[in-house]
Amino acid sequence: MAIEKVKGYVSGVKINDVLYQNIRGTSATPVAIKFECSTKYPCKGIKLQNVNLTYLKKVAQSSCANVIGTTMGLVKPDNCL
Questions:
Q1: Which residue has the higher pLDDT, 14 or 5?
Q2: Per the record's keyword annotation, is Secreted included, yes or no (predicted)?
Q3: Residues ≥6 apart with Cβ < 8 Å to 72
Q4: Structural domain includes residue 35
Q5: Is 50 exposed, middle or buried (0-12, 13-18, 19+ CB in 10 A)?
Q6: Domain containing 53: what range?
Q7: What is the DSSP track for 45-67?
Q8: Within a domain: residue 54?
Q9: What's the pLDDT tens digit per position in 42-57?
Q10: Distances from the Cα of 38 to the Cαs of 1, 13, 32, 67, 77, in angstroms?
């Protein structure tokens, strides 16, 4: 299912207190970690713990917008929290 972005649209969904733990593998895209949260309702309490993702056996990338969180243990790619 594809979701089309509508200019000026602000999501009404709040995402809080999510833990991503012990995740490892290969990403299908160069950006392996991506949080694109609402300006009105930023994601809060996001935690990454022991996450190790690569892209084509190389370092992957991360991208964050309007997210507040923490990391614990090894987290690759370098995160943007």
A1: 14
A2: yes
A3: 47, 48, 49, 50
A4: yes
A5: middle
A6: 21-76
A7: EEEEEEEEEEETTEE-EEEEESE
A8: yes
A9: 999 999 999 999 999 8
A10: 20, 8, 20, 9, 23
Domain count across the chain:
1
Q: Is residue 11 part of a domain?
A: no
The structure tokens listed for 71 are 């990391």
Mode of pairing for the β-strands spanning 31-36 and 43-55: unpaired
Q: Which amino acid is at 36?
A: E
What is the per-residue pLDDT for 3?
Answer: 44
Q: Is residue 67 within 8 Å of residue 38, measured between CB atoms?
A: no
Amino acid at 58: K
Contact call for residues 50 and 23 (beta carbons, < 8 A): yes
How far is residue 35's CA from residue 69's CA, in Å, rounded to a whole number? 11
Whether 26 is in a domain gets the answer: yes
